[in-house]
Amino acid sequence: MTIYETYKGKKVDVDYETGYHFIIEYLSENELEWTALGKLAKGAPSKEKEPYVSYDLGDGKFMVNWIEESGLVLSQIADFANGKVYAFMTWPDDAARGHRGQLLHKGTLRVLD
Predict the structure, then answer these.
(1) Number of neighbours of residue 109 by Cβ within 10 angstroms
(2) How far apart are CA 55 and CA 33, in angstroms?
(3) pLDDT at 22 (0 to 100)
């Protein structure tokens, strides 16, 4: 079963220990919408729709990946069975190695009614 089939019509609260906090809704098999509730990167929007790809890892876990218009790339492991989320973010940054900034973070997730 896909992440969309499993969670369509529901919102997912994703709260990272780094201060980033989002509500994610899977709108279709290939589009999601996120809304920021907490910390935002400078110049970042507070809400955006993104094309995404995902893979069912089994046991309530999904790998979810998307590329934002800004060039930010997010690769996320959403562990719904245990209420945990892990993510690697990278974005354009001329001063960083490979011209990409990076952030590895973890947090909690919960499905909202």
Answers:
(1) 19
(2) 18
(3) 96
